[in-house]
Amino acid sequence: MNPSTGGPTSQAFFQANTSAGGFGTVPLQGTTTPCPPVTKKALEVTVVERIGEGVRPLGDHLIELSRGQARYRLPSSAFGPARFEGLDSVTHGLTLVGIDQDAWDVMISEGLPEQNITSNLSPDWRPPEEAQLGGGEHTVQPGEGVDKLALRFGHLPEILWGYEPNAPLRGARESRNTLHPGDKLHVPPRRPKQIDVVPGHHYVLVRKGTMSRLRLRIEVAFEPLDMARYLLEIPNFPTLSGPTVNGYIDVAVPASTSAVRVTIDGLPRPIQLRLETLLPLRSDAGVQQRLHNLGMPCGRTDGTMDDQASAVLRRFQQMVKQAPTGAIDNNVRAALWNLHDRG
Length: 343
Known about the structure:
- The protein has about 350 residues and is α+β, with helices and mostly antiparallel strands.
- The chain is built from seven helices and 21 strands.
- The chain folds into five domains: about 1-30, no CATH class; about 40-130 and about 190-205, Sandwich (Immunoglobulin-like); about 135-185, Roll (Membrane-bound Lytic Murein Transglycosylase D, Chain A), CATH 3.10.350.10; about 210-275, Immunoglobulin-like (Sandwich), CATH 2.60.40; about 280-343.
- Strands 3, 4, 7, 9 and 13 form a five-stranded mixed β-sheet that branches. Strands 6-5-8-12 form a four-stranded antiparallel β-sheet, with no helix packed on it.
- Strand 20 and strand 21 form a beta hairpin.
- Residues about 1-25 have low confidence and may be disordered.
């Protein structure tokens, strides 16, 4: 007791509580109770791509959480969600760094299981970094098409190819994936997108434009091998299978695919194929590339017509009942379009 006032001292006095539950502490009148601890929460993010009717997790995408001027970044994983720890229960911003606003979207937003909500770890908040929006001119290299370049630059292929400065290139090429090495492709700046997210939830973000069309024609003596069962093996991707249709295998594969292995029922051995961007048919190099794809390699695919290339061309002309001149002309291009390009 305070001898001068007869009241409680400024120190906290506690009395033993011996009722009903054993010993505990109850504050005496005039004291204050400590504030309850603030519960921090986690937030989880998975980045996926669509494969047919399903999805596949993607790694190596940088996910950024923001609150005010602070930033918290984690890479996505192909083996599970990225987990942001120690967050206050307020709205945060979320974005995919380096990806245009049209090239990703929210697929799923769901509450975390109760046992996964609480987080006692410290968040790794850092100052903001200057946004890198890209854009500029790119010189096309061998094997590059718009689908691959759009994936690299964080755009949808149709946005990259439809960019107004690319109008002259669109007029000069048959399709967005028949580019010449040395072509100048203009890349638009990326437009960032941010969505509101709440800790205690799991968000699944879908990256768009990651797949490309692969079309192969399987022939024996220039006759399509129809309804033949095939296995198509792609590195780091599920094996695809089915029957050929009018001799064609027509499937969606990752835009980054550079090689495949095809096994066809009835053929003696698997076929190893290196995928390259198809050169324009109007070019001599494009003609040689198609002859090579049809099993008639010219020895080179740079457009040079040496003795071997001319001999191969004469053989092709004979097989399609043309005069064997050994020279590339519009009749040769028409025959190649029918045999190779036409869907």
